[in-house]
Amino acid sequence: MERHHSDVQIEQIFISSEHNFVGHYGQPPGTSPLIERERIQCVAGKGLLGDRYFNHREDYKGQITFFSAEVFEQLCIYFGIREKPAGVLRRNVIVSGVDLPSLIGCDFEIQGVKFRGTQHCAPCEWMDVAIAPGAKEFLKENGGLRAKILTDGELHLGDAQLRIVKDVEASVSTA
After folding, report:
1. Residue pair 127/136 in contact by the 8 Å Cβ criterion
2. Tens digit of each residue's pLDDT, the chain (175 residues)
3. Pairing mode, if any, of strands 64-68 and 47-48?
């Protein structure tokens, strides 16, 4: 059941080999740099090659994370941020032209790679450190999208088509 196509743009791609926030509660964040890429290898069931969550655990819901460029722009305006890149959010793929929460429960394809939108990528208390006090609250409904990678492939910066392959939740409830 294919729902629709839409034009999206992959604006930025980030990976980091280590966690800066996970496991650092009550301590300063780590210093593992974000690496900005023009392209990235997606490995089905495992994650992004070279990223800290690669092969994290069986059936992990956050093998890749997406974040909206439009939400980042709103965040920057609200907090008067000019000097910080979207990478401070520690999400992998910054996209424009798509309502990410609408992909929760859907199988979708971008640039030939299939994903399953699993859940909202809830912001943590570190957002207040990385961005500005109040950022966690600002992002509570728009923290991004966690997804599983269903097929191997490569994502790259630039134009892309988003194709909804199926609405998983609708097909489960009708089965």
Report:
1. yes
2. 445 668 999 999 999 875 545 544 565 555 566 889 999 999 999 999 999 888 888 889 999 999 999 999 999 999 999 888 888 888 999 999 999 999 999 999 999 999 999 999 988 877 888 899 999 999 998 999 999 999 999 999 999 999 998 776 554 444 4
3. unpaired
Range of the domain at 165: 5-16+35-46+63-108+116-174
User: Residue 26: inside a domain, yes or no?
Assistant: no
Whose tokens are 């965040």? That residue is 75
Number of separate domains in the chain? 1
